[in-house]
């Protein structure tokens, strides 16, 4: 029973990682860049939702929509101001810019909302806690919502990318940016759209993260962001189902490692597993092996 | 009309002369306060400065054997500036120091004061490094590790629990230090530590830690940590329906100030703290109301420690029979001897000092009831 309860806790943590990882993998898969500011967009989303509920007294659904709208605008702004001018630059330059953007967002949040932690209201998630086996096993409402949200986002994203015109453009840009441009695809607009979707996902992830672990600080997004990035790499970066599987596996490994090996080594175990997986499968669990043609 | 004015003026003059005469009888003690009054740590230095000044004003108003003159110096929480501040204070004739407020400057100034034989009583520098190998530096606050042993004793003495879980931050020296002295003390006083789990500053999920404490049947969870992770632990425990007693130390102070935190979850949380602004004893009520009147805010522990520090220095001066205008090095050894005899009750409890300069005071606990701290008794 204790094992089962640990497993459920792992899945619950993992499902949060998975939602964040979906945003990472989406942007990476299409724009071929690591948006390290993703974790901080999550934090902004959570703060906006917090303000909407706590200060303006809006209902949770409206708060989520506002957070998504703000994050979408923020994502597009970041992309056009910081990343677009570097489209032709080396990928290292873009990576460093992303890290800079991450610190910029954290410090702006520090200016706006201050360093004092805020506790996220629990009223965001309406599903009640599921109690099984006479209370021996509890699954919180947030976990159920997170898993459902994951499946839904995965389904919508896959359909969007495979079935719509914009999705087709995204796949083209992902495959060969130069050729896509020659074929008359507006690369800038496509990448902007990718960031818009990724950032809206970040808002959802932020609300889920803070509903499950309700402390909100300017650095709230950074560690989950890094873990989720790990999850995305673990599952095969660029692959949407890979992000979900990677996220959930990472959460389960983290919790089981802490519960059965040592709480002190929890994070070390997670990253050790990542290294081992990458040694045997360099592209991650579900990553595609793309052969370079000469 | 003129006559009346003249009479009043004459009366006022003679009264003020009387007051002056009274003051001249008292021996003036020049006490330097050194602390960060500007910069990032200003909140602490301002608190100790104000606390010390309130104590000095009270002592002067009461008109006892000594009159206290505070020489206020700003060290900006910088070791070099602190040494300059110390030199400046000594040039102005300081006989003792209530300071410095923060640890790093305190170590620097302490080394110099040790050489030059100047007695220092720091209100709030809580590291053991502050007093190590120096016979002239004393502390008003508990040392960080002392809180662990004091907590174990408190829990055992008040029979709060026998099976205890500890959750601490193993990436933080403060938390680890308290944890170590707690587990050393626990078996001595008959506490069984059934679960020990850790986390770091980057931890998001506390389910494993809370579950472990619950599954091993801990009746009390000791949290030698700051209030932000503590709030997460309280939320998690509530989610899984685990209701042990939670026991924190001074880092827990602040749990009620987290915006949006459901403070009802903190109901019944105990914390070991030497000072609680809500305590109802006469001394505390007087200190808190004076502080609020003057500075329009509730005094924190730092202010209380400095307030007690000035009272302790004056009491020690009395035992050491310090005379008008005696130099700092002349009185240092006598003050050291006096400090070890001294027993004084202030707003942070009843204090005695060991030869190492560490304070012993009865740890008191406050419990959170209806969203406020109240004194705990059982």
Characterization of the model:
The complex is a heterodimer of chains A (294) and B (378). By secondary structure, chain A is mainly alpha-helical. Chain A contains 11 helices and 4 strands; from the N terminus they run H-H-H-H-E-E-E-H-H-H-H-E-H-H-H. Chain A has a two-stranded antiparallel sheet. A two-stranded antiparallel ribbon of chain A has the order 2-3. In chain A, helix 5 runs antiparallel to helix 8. Chain A is globular. Chain B folds into 2 domains: 7-142 and 282-361, 3-Layer(aba) Sandwich (Rossmann fold); 146-273, Rossmann fold (3-Layer(aba) Sandwich). Chain B has 11 helices and 15 strands. Chain B has helices at 2-25, 42-62, 79-91, 103-116, 146-157, 173-188, 207-215, 227-239, 282-295, 301-320, 328-341, and strands at residues 27-35, 66-74, 96-99, 119-122, 137-139, 163-169, 192-199, 220-223, 245-248, 270-272, 344-346, 349-353, 359-361, 365-369, 372-375. In chain B, helix 5 packs parallel to helix 6 and helix 10 crosses helix 11. The N and C termini of chain B lie far apart (67 Å). The chains are: A mainly alpha (294), B alpha/beta (378). The interface between A and B is medium-sized, with 36 and 30 residues.
